[in-house]
Write a structure and sequence with these properties.
It is built from two helices and four strands; from the N terminus they run αββββα. The chain is of the alpha+beta class and about 120 residues long. The chain has two domains: about 10-75, no CATH class; about 75-105, no CATH class.
């Protein structure tokens, strides 16, 4: 089996193409994130990290253990709403209102579907 010189060019073919598939998976994830949330203008990042650890034998370098890590970072998403703590008699719990997300105690007007009102 011939030895292959490790290089940036050969990176995609390492481990039978596994590294290329790892990179492609993160690129696809970032593309989906950009498509789903283009209004978030923060940069997305894909990182390829290569860690090299010398393995010594009889006081000399015998081989190098290599780890290739692919990772990605997209801006986090935050959804906030106001909640109160209430007791239901047995335990304390959080309560919120889907109709008044800023103030769960706010009264809301009852809107009816036009078809059901006819």
């Amino acid at each position: 089996m011939p030895l292959i010189a490790f290089s940036a060019e050969k990176l995609a073919t390492c481990r039978g193409g596994l590294v290329a598939r790892m990179i492609d998976a993160y690129l696809s994830k970032m593309a989906a994130d950009l498509e789903n949330a283009p209004e978030i203008t923060e940069k997305r990042k894909v990182t390829i990290e290569i860690m090299l650890k010398p393995i010594m034998e009889h006081g000399e370098l015998h081989r190098v253990e290599t780890e290739i890590t692919v990772n990605g970072k997209a801006p986090k998403r935050v959804a906030s709403m106001a909640m109160f703590v209430r007791s239901n008699g047995r335990q304390r719990q959080f309560v919120y209102s889907e109709d008044a997300e800023d103030n769960p105690e706010q009264s809301t007007l009852p809107f009816h579907d036009q078809k059901s009102a006819e």
